[in-house]
Write a structure and sequence with these properties.
Length: 232
């Protein structure tokens, strides 16, 4: 999966992943993280998600990263937020947009998440992953893009807890997941553990069936995970 894949999605307005309301699982389960007002939440592969506005309304600082600059520019324009644009001090392929909403800072980096470091995003108290992990492919090895992404989150914010939303299938063997293409990708529970269990305690907050079904009539699942750093 290349950067051009996502560029084409935005250019052709194929944005089925973009919601016009805050995600209900974010609203329900963010309190589980016991954050304080003013804490900083990192939103990877954020697009122009309305969830970032909701987080700012709760008095959290928001820092995101998005590969496609069009998405970032549209986020600030569509929400009537004045933003300044700043180059990275040393990496020419990174820049960030910065604005304020509801007296909270919103900073969104434009570029490849693998180019970011801890200093770029600052001290992060939590990670909110709604559409990042499920957007990345996995070839079953520890070198897959999805596996590398999970490790990059740990590198960027090793002490931050995480609210992770993922998709699955009900009542099937996990080997059957290979039959379903994405994005978004369906992720077996065991793979979630493979990505994160060395660094986090994983708590499944909820798993519920949606009305959509696969060809065999098995319902899709929405899952919410709380990832608690092992260091704490």
């Amino acid at each position: 999966m290349t950067p051009e894949f996502w560029q084409k999605k935005w250019q052709s307005n194929q944005l089925g992943f973009n919601q016009n309301k805050p995600n209900p699982m974010l609203i329900e389960y963010l309190p589980t993280l016991n954050l304080a007002q003013g804490n900083r939440i990192f939103v990877p592969l954020c697009g122009k998600s309305i969830d970032m506005l909701w987080l700012a309304e709760q008095q959290f600082e928001v820092v995101g990263v998005e590969l496609v600059e069009t998405a970032v520019a549209e986020f600030f324009t569509e929400n009537n937020i004045s933003a300044s644009v700043h180059p990275h001090e040393s990496e020419p392929n990174l820049k960030y947009y910065q604005g304020r909403y509801n007296n909270s800072d919103i900073i969104i980096w434009v570029g490849d998440i693998f180019l970011l470091n801890q200093q770029d995003i600052g001290v992060v108290d939590a990670i909110y992953d709604r559409a990042a992990l499920v957007a990345l492919p996995d070839d079953g090895t520890n070198h897959s893009l999805r596996f590398r992404y999970a490790q990059q989150l740990i590198n960027l914010a090793p002490k931050a807890q995480q609210l992770l939303l993922s998709f699955g299938l009900s009542g099937v063997d996990e080997t059957e997941y290979a039959n379903y293409s994405g994005p978004p990708f369906l992720i077996p529970t065991q793979r979630i553990h493979d990505y994160y269990q060395h660094a986090y305690q994983l708590v499944l907050l909820e798993s519920y069936e949606t009305q959509k079904v696969n060809n065999e009539g098995k319902p899709f699942l929405n899952l919410a995970w709380h990832l608690i750093p092992a260091q704490t």
